[in-house]
Amino acid sequence: MKSGRQEAILRLIQENAIDTQSDLLDLLRREGFEVTQATVSRDLKALRLVKSLGEDGRYRYTSGLSHEDKTYPKFHSLFDHAALTVDYAGNMVVIKCASGMAQGICAAMDALQWKTVVGTLAGDDTIFCVMRTESDAADMAQKLQQLK
Q1: Could you tell me which of 95, 98, 106 has the C-alpha nearest to residue 81?
Q2: In what order do the strands lie in the sheet with 83-89?
Q3: Residue 7: pLDDT band with limits 50, 70, 90
């Protein structure tokens, strides 16, 4: 029961911008978990969840284990040195890389867990990144081009 509830908490904070324990408690109850605020508080501590500033300027619960702030510098360094071109078509971003570097860049990109990325696929020198929408692809391509 505890592990199922904690798995639900991790899923909920990834799917929703949750900024209070009360909001999390409500979502858990909607999913059938009979919990108290004290239980939610203990779960947050056990899972080592922290509040981080989101892109929207609001604080929300996130997992401290794979936080973007720690991973982004590694990605940026790899991308800056090995990515050659970035383009997009439809909802797909295509990144051409130095030979042998695509999988490393792709793994670093996956670790960032960007919400607009549906999935990635890397070969030897090319990464395909499927985005949720064409607009997301255009935005991502622009952001990645600025890293060069």
Answers
A1: 98
A2: 83-89, 92-97, 126-131, 117-122
A3: confident
Tell me the pairing of strands 117-122 and 83-89: unpaired
For 72-120, the pLDDT digits (tens) are 677 787 888 899 999 999 999 999 999 988 988 888 888 888 889 999 9
Q: 68-82 and 134-147 helices cross at what angle (nearest 10)? A: 70
Whole-number Å distance between alpha carbons of 91 and 136: 7
Taking a C-beta distance cutoff of 8 angstroms, is the pair 131, 86 a contact? Answer: no
Nearest-angstrom CA–CA distance, 28 and 95? 39
Contact 102, 124 (CB under 8 A): yes
pTM beyond 0.90: the answer is no
Alpha carbon 138 to its chain's center: 18
What's the full length of the chain, in residues?
148
Candidates 3.30.230.10, 1.10.230.10, 1.10.10.10, 3.40.50.1980; correct CATH number of 2-66? Answer: 1.10.10.10
CATH 3.30.1360.40 fits 68-147, yes or no: yes
